[in-house]
Structure formats: structure tokens, C-alpha cells
Amino acid sequence: MSFFSLQMSNLLTGGPTDAQIFLSLALLGLASHMFFIRHRNVDRLVGIGFMPYLYVQFGLWLLLSIRSDPIKSGIFLWLANAAFYAPLFASISVYRLFFHPLKPFPGPSMARLTTWWGVNRLAMGEQRYQLHDELHRQYGKLVRIAPNYLSINSQEAVAIIYGPGTKCEKSNTFYGLRDAKSLQLEAEFTKHRARRPAWDKALSAKSMYIRHETKTSDLKYSLEAD
Questions:
Q1: Cβ neighbours, 10 Å, residue 91
Q2: I need a surface site. Which of 10, 13, 16, 121 has the fewest CB within 10 A?
């Protein structure tokens, strides 16, 4: 059994070989994309999770280095990460380029791969609206600005997206990250539909008429009393 397998045998029973370890990590990377990442917007989590990722890797390196050579432990972790992330990123790239539902829409090539493609331009001082305006001039009314995002510059689309009966559900972060949400700020259809009946009853034409009559009577009584 090789050194790397002996490293893992300290943590796992059975002493798998190097090939078995790296193949398992590669399959895990593919499965992570197919069953978890594919239908989620994970690009923005990269910046948030980078430092915790480094801490975890450092902890694993310390754990392996307790009984083994630190340099060889570092090499093992590097190969293990490569075995996991190389198939993961390859699968993400192939899916976003060739099989994604937004594939038919035009846009910059890098925008099909990652949300971070325009960060350097924004970092140089360019405003987001200026960037989007440039893209619409180049590609038309519908532009794919990120793997899971479209920028739409069309008057006709307003009623389709925001009108009654729309099937376009807003992102959970559309109104910002808030624990308590009013009915107007509730983006999820199911939660909005469950809360709306009470408001429909309170704000119906009949209820508003009765309330108006009550307020008018109160005002008339108050004026007569004066």
C-alpha cells in the first residue's frame, strides 16, 4: 500500500488504494454538480466560502501531518482537491456551455461560464447599468449576463414578468436578505399565496367601501360636534 493510502487509513478503515480514493473523489465531484449545484446559484458563494475552505484544508493538513511527513501530507491534499474539483468544474462548464436552459440566448462567452466574468470591469469603475447597456447594444434585447441570469431590455416584457399570473418567480435575495418579510416583499409564490387571502378580504372593494363610509361618518360627527 502506498504512502497516500496509508495517510487515509489513519482516518478510514479498510485502507483504500490511491486510485480508489481519487476515483471516489472524482465521482463525488460529478455527483455534487448533477444533484446539488446544477439548479443552484453557487457562484456568489465562492467568495463567502473561500476562507472557510482554507481553514478546513489547513485543519486536514495538520491532522495528516501528526503521523506523517508534512510535505507529503500537503501533496496528498493537493491531489485530493484536484481529483474532486477538476471533474466538478469540467462538468459545470460543459453543462453551462452546451446543456443549460439559457443556452439559446446570446451574451459574452465568459458570462455563460461564471457570474464573476464582469467583476474586473466593475472593479475598474464601470457602472453596472453602463455594462448592461453596452451588452444590449451588441447582443439585442435579451442578453445572458451570467450562467443563470438574463438582462431584458424590452417594454413588452414588463407585463409578462411582473403582471398578474406571471410565472416568473423572484430570487430569494431580490429584496435583500431579511428575516421578516411583508406580503409585498415575499418573493416565493407558495408563501405569498398562503398569506394573500387575508389581505384580499381586508382590501376588497366591499371592505374598502364600508371602511370609507365609517371614516366619513366619523368625520361628519366630529365636524358637527365642533
A1: 18
A2: 13
Q: SS3 of 163, please?
A: coil
- What would the grid cell of residue 65 be? 501531518
Domain range enclosing 122: 103-168
Could you tell me if 176 and 163 lie in one domain?
A: no
Facing residues of 152 across strands? 142
Does 153 lie in the same domain as 182? no
Helix boundaries (H) for the chain: 3-9, 18-32, 43-65, 70-94, 109-113, 119-123, 128-139, 156-162, 189-202, 205-225
Average pLDDT, the chain: 78
Number of domain units in the chain: 3
CA-CA-CA-CA torsion for 46, 50, 53, 54, nearest 10 degrees?
A: 160
For residue 11, give the C-alpha cell. 482516518
Same domain, 176 and 222: yes
- Tens digits of per-residue pLDDT, 17-41? 777 888 998 999 899 888 888 777 7
pTM: 0.68
Summarised one tens digit per residue, pLDDT across range 202-215 is 666 666 655 555 55
> For 42, which DSSP code?
-
**130 plus 48 within the same structural domain:** no
